[in-house]
UniProtKB/TrEMBL annotation:
Organism this protein belongs to: Spirochaeta lutea
Gene Ontology molecular function: any one: adenosylhomocysteine nucleosidase activity
Protein name per its UniProtKB record: 5'-methylthioadenosine/S-adenosylhomocysteine nucleosidase
Gene: mtnN
Entry keyword set: Amino-acid biosynthesis, Hydrolase, Methionine biosynthesis
Cellular component per GO, a single term: cytosol
């Protein structure tokens, strides 16, 4: 089984629309949708916005369904002039941009006892990169995804994030929590997001205008990845 998590209804609605043999299971106010997507068994969750919701949802999904891997889908603020609205950012690394324990010698974004940057499964990342290279449905890059419990709409806040993490390409609110949960529980994962805004002073209106486009492109990429998931060798599996 493959796990898919999105924060908002708009971010999972296309996936639910393609689900065959759907069933629902509710645990602790979280509703899990199971069924077949592109002939592969999946479980889909709308976790709610923010890192705590994402961590709880991912933990419950892993405990209840033990997915082979987990994918986080949805919209993000895109950083860099080469990114257009609707373009994909696939996680090469993931960080908490709102964690700071540097006073005790840790790296920016690093939680004590954990890596400063979480790295997704190499097999999933390679498969997603191959999809980007061969599809004409959307454009995209791989790069650093930064997460925090703030909707980025303040240029000064964005400047602060970029000062600490100059290579960040996407800013959102759940990916690092899911990455950390998967890291600690030993589940392969990948973050796939599409650009809805620029994480700047216009981001609120841009997000509302472009959410459906970003959600559609991200969900399409997730579907494409699931379709070839039987060909992916995850880290630690025999090749």
């Amino acid at each position: 089984m493959i796990g898919i998590i999105g924060a908002m209804e708009e971010e999972i609605s296309l996936l639910l629309g393609e689900l065959r043999e759907p069933r629902t299971i509710t645990r602790e106010q979280f509703t899990f949708h199971t069924g077949l997507l592109r002939d592969h068994r999946v479980v889909i969750l709308q976790c709610g916005i923010g890192k705590v919701n994402a961590a709880i949802g991912a933990t419950l999904m892993i405990e209840l369904f033990n997915p082979a891997f987990l994918v986080n889908t949805g919209a993000a603020g895109g950083i860099g002039p080469d990114l257009a609205i609707g373009d994909l950012i696939i996680s090469r690394e993931v960080i908490h941009h709102d964690v700071d324990v540097t006073a005790f010698g840790y790296q920016p974004g690093q939680i004590p006892g954990l890596p400063d940057r979480f790295t997704p499964d190499a097999g999933l990342l390679a498969a997603a990169q191959a999809l980007l290279e061969h599809t004409t449905s959307f454009r995209g890059i791989t790069g650093l995804v930064a997460s925090g419990d703030v909707f980025m709409a303040n240029p000064e806040s964005l400047t602060g994030v970029l000062k600490r993490f100059p290579d960040v390409r996407a800013i959102e609110m759940e990916g690092a929590a899911i990455a950390q949960t998967c890291h600690q529980l030993g589940i392969p994962y990948l973050i796939i997001r599409a650009v809805s805004d620029r994480a700047d002073e216009a981001s609120t209106g841009d997000f509302e205008e472009n959410l459906h486009l970003a959600a559609r492109n991200s969900a399409t990429a997730v579907c494409d990845l699931i379709e070839i998931s039987h060909t992916i060798t995850l880290e630690g599996e025999p090749s």
